[in-house]
Design a protein that fits this description.
- The chain is an alpha/beta fold.
- It has 2 domains: 12-146 and 339-352, Aspartate/ornithine carbamoyltransferase (Rossmann fold, 3-Layer(aba) Sandwich); 150-336, Rossmann fold (3-Layer(aba) Sandwich).
- Helix content is 39%, strand content 14%.
- It is built from 13 helices and 11 strands.
Length: 356
């Protein structure tokens, strides 16, 4: 069990399962007792910087709400309001900016992905560069490789919907963290059509975490939409360590059979970045050709009463039919809500040492 005060969260894979379990347990408790006295002043008068290179609905709003509920203040930062050095212009270095920010704030969240990076991995490098020069924790708010806060919210939501012990207790969603609640459940992460040309961050984070929490993981995508090979290797190892299966397929149908969780999402191809830029229009045009890659109600019927999950925003009609996204087995709004509770637990632990 490690000390969590000051610990960066760039990818959950870099945290021990024991430490993740502590975060999940606290997040479930915070959800049940949202305005409990013991949580209200954990970050009293402290500052959380939210540095957004890309737009957001859930991440910004949930971090702002989380900050307020813990007694902190969340400050919104964007690069155009700062004079930072870039490849094209003179300005302040990360080394200087990060050390100054470290004097003001107790935590720094950074989002950098999609068209704000010039190659896959640049967002990851930038976040790690900030982490090098700060003592305060750096939290990824989604970057080109990983989205740890989304992964935490996903696992919480799937446990709420699938952990039998918890559900039996309440008759609806599980209210307590059950670290074995997903063991043996089958997750399908399937590429889907869509015009949002997204980074791989959410699906890669989900695959890694699902393996660690004992799920069988199947990743389905057309040729050319492969995951990062390092993520594939780590996910395979995570699954094997729990005695679970890991499969990669280019068949849009196969993974639905017996699935308990279906995660249908568009992501960009391995050729998305060329000559230092994201070829978004080409990517969108290419994705339109794969007309057989939508999560449909007919496909969901082949699952084991499976739930539909998605980090949102959803490209309805392309990634998934409305009947599924808005159907009785859709956990999307519970997962979205869990961003708040999961991030409160992460902030309390890393910015205040609440679990140390
Ligand atoms: N899931 C997620 O990160 O949503 P936003 O892009 O709206 O923040």
């Amino acid at each position: 069990m490690g000390k969590l005060l000051g610990k960066d969260l760039i990818c959950t894979q870099e945290w021990s399962k024991e430490d993740l379990d502590r975060i999940f347990k606290l997040a479930f408790e915070m959800k049940q007792d949202r305005f409990g006295e013991k949580y209200l002043n954990i970050l009293y008068r402290k500052q959380f910087f939210m540095f957004f290179f890309n737009p957001s609905v859930r991440t910004r709003q949930s971090f702002e709400a989380a900050s307020t509920e813990l007694g902190a203040h969340a400050q919104f930062l964007e690069p155009k309001a700062m004079r930072l050095k870039t490849a094209k212009s003179a300005g302040e270095t990360i080394e200087d900016a990060a050390q100054v920010m470290d004097r003001y704030a107790y935590g720094l969240g950074i989002r950098m992905l999609e068209n704000k990076v010039t190659y896959y991995g640049e967002g990851d490098s930038l976040i790690r560069e900030y982490a090098k020069y700060t003592k305060m924790p750096i939290i990824s708010m989604a970057h080109d490789k990983f989205h740890p806060c989304q992964g935490v919210a996903d696992i919480m939501g799937w446990i709420e919907w699938l952990a039998e012990a918890g559900k039996q207790k309440t008759g609806s969603l599980a209210t307590e963290f059950d670290s074995d609640g997903l063991v043996g459940k089958k997750l399908l992460i399937t590429w889907s059509q869509g015009a949002l040309c997204r980074s791989l961050c959410s699906v890669q984070e989900a695959a890694l975490l699902a393996g660690r929490y004992g799920m069988d993981v199947t990743i389905a995508h057309p040729e050319g939409y492969e995951f990062d090979p390092d993520v594939i290797k780590a996910t395979r190892e995570n699954c094997e360590a729990r005695g679970q299966e890991f499969t990669v397929t280019q068949d849009p149908e196969a993974g639905y059979e017996g699935a308990h969780v279906v995660y249908s999402r568009n992501w960009m191809s391995s050729e998305a970045y060329q000559d230092g830029e994201l070829k978004k229009e080409e990517e969108i045009a290419k994705a339109q050709k794969y007309t057989d890659w939508t999560c449909t109600a007919a496909r969901m019927k082949r699952t084991d009463n499976g739930i539909f999950t998605h980090p949102m925003p959803i490209d309805r009609g392309a990634e998934v039919e409305d009947a599924v996204a808005s159907g009785p087995n859709s956990c999307i709004f519970d997962v979205a809500e869990n961003r708040l509770h999961g991030q409160k637990a992460i902030m309390a632990a890393t910015m205040a040492g609440f679990l140390d």
